[in-house]
Amino acid sequence: MRKQRVLVTGGSGFLGSHLCDRLIKDGYDVICVDNLFTGSKDNIRHLLGHPYFEFIRHDMINPIYVECDQIYNLACPASPKWYQKDPIYTFKTSVFSAMNCLGLAKRTGARILQASTSEVYGDPEVHPQPESYRGCVNTIGIRSCYDEGKRAAETLFFDYHRQHNVDVKVMRIFNTYGPRMDIGDGRVVSNFIVQALKGEDITIYGDGLQTRSFCYIDDLIEGMVRLMNSRDGFTGPVNIGNPSEFTIKELAEMVIKLTESDSKLVYEPLPSDDPIQRKPLIDLAKRELEWKPEIGIIEGLNNTIDYFKGII
Ligand code: NAD
Ligand code: UDP
């Protein structure tokens, strides 16, 4: 029997490269599509040359014609620094990549998973956030290109499902961290670890009392694969994240302790529309996917610190 062929868009990014590793390990035939906007060949270098791994440099704003059984749509700049660099391009990527993947799924009959985000909840007024919460997003702010792009992509997924019976799965991903985070993309975990290891000041935006809930990469990928292979008719959206919630100041203090750094905390202005609190409710994932995160913040941070020690 031929191997199941899987398309991963955004496959040379942080999440995508870990997903490709997992799919190759599980015996799939993987097509990784990426335009290397924020991703890097270094993330998939070890897979290049594998007989069941194929890399295609392609911009998902344009349609792609391949044959496949499953599609994971991850292509999209994901850190505020990169998605705000060219917001129109971010919005186009989010919407057109979703539409092109859905068209492909419609033609091939492939099952398709969308990497959506907790950002669809915006700056949430409901805490913690269940999937039924419809969010509080500023349509015209500096984060909107990403938030609204992802919301529009979710809309397309459910319209293709209702109108064309496409087999869709929508995953709302909460802040994820781990090895292969881009060293310079400005996300908080990578920033703090690199600053601590270099003995530089740790930059806290605002008063540091805003919260996030951090999920380790291996847990996230497990949830993603479980969702793709979940029962027929289960579409989500489903939150995948670690409900352990920390203030950004607490995160900074943990990083300083674990790296034994003498870096000092410095306070910088909070960017506009930066969400004040974020924590997933994961009852649905527990029930439908029998999934819950296994890796705590200390273990996860230590693994990530080891990774950054190896590259800086
Ligand atoms: P990343 O920037 O490392 O990966 C995104 C990948 O998409 C990169 O390899 C980039 O080159 C590629 N890409 C961007 N635009 C493209 C285009 N037009 N055509 C083809 N490829 C393109 O980010 P990540 O953290 O790995 O995020 C992956 C996905 O997961 C994104 O869709 C993101 O929105 C979603 N997500 C991530 C997080 C997180 O905490 N990391 C949270 C919520 C959602
Ligand atoms: N943040 C910070 N210092 C940094 C980078 C980020 O205080 O050097 C804050 C940021 O303002 C936000 C939180 O950390 O409140 C998480 O930021 P990140 O960009 O990692 O993720 P997102 O805001 O998209 O959840």
Write the layout of secondary structure elements.
Layout: E1 5-9, H1 14-25, E2 29-34, E3 53-57, E4 70-73, H2 80-83, H3 87-108, E5 111-117, H4 144-164, E6 168-173, E7 176-177, H5 188-198, E8 202-205, E9 211-213, E10 215-216, H6 217-228, E11 238-240, E12 245-247, H7 248-259, E13 265-268, H8 283-289, H9 297-311
Parallel strand pairs: 1-2, 1-4, 2-3, 4-5, 5-6, 6-11, 7-10, 8-13
Antiparallel strand pairs: 9-12
This protein binds nicotinamide-adenine-dinucleotide and uridine-5'-diphosphate.
Uridine-5'-diphosphate binds next to helix 5 and strand 8.
Annotation keywords:
binds nicotinamide-adenine-dinucleotide, binds uridine-5'-diphosphate, seven-stranded parallel sheet, single chain, 17% strand, two-stranded parallel sheet, 9 helices
In short:
This protein has helices at residues 14-25, 80-83, 87-108, 144-164, 188-198, 217-228, 248-259, 283-289, 297-311; strands spanning 5-9, 29-34, 53-57, 70-73, 111-117, 168-173, 176-177, 202-205, 211-213, 215-216, 238-240, 245-247, 265-268. It has 312 residues and is an alpha/beta fold.
Could you walk me through the main structural features you see in this protein, from its secondary elements to its overall organization?
This protein is α/β, with parallel strands linked by helices and 312 residues long. The protein is 37% helix and 17% strand. The chain contains nine helices and 13 strands. The chain has helices at residues 14-25, 80-83, 87-108, 144-164, 188-198, 217-228, 248-259, 283-289, 297-311, and strands at residues 5-9, 29-34, 53-57, 70-73, 111-117, 168-173, 176-177, 202-205, 211-213, 215-216, 238-240, 245-247, 265-268. It has a seven-stranded parallel sheet with strand order 3-2-1-4-5-6-11, sandwiched between helices. Helix 3 runs parallel beside helix 4 and helix 5 (188-198) packs parallel to helix 7 (248-259). The longest helix is centred in the first third of the chain and has 22 residues, at 87-108. The mean pLDDT is 98. The structure holds nicotinamide-adenine-dinucleotide and uridine-5'-diphosphate (UDP). Uridine-5'-diphosphate (UDP) is lined by residues 79-80, 175, 186-188, 191, 203-205, 210, 212, 248, 270-271, 274.
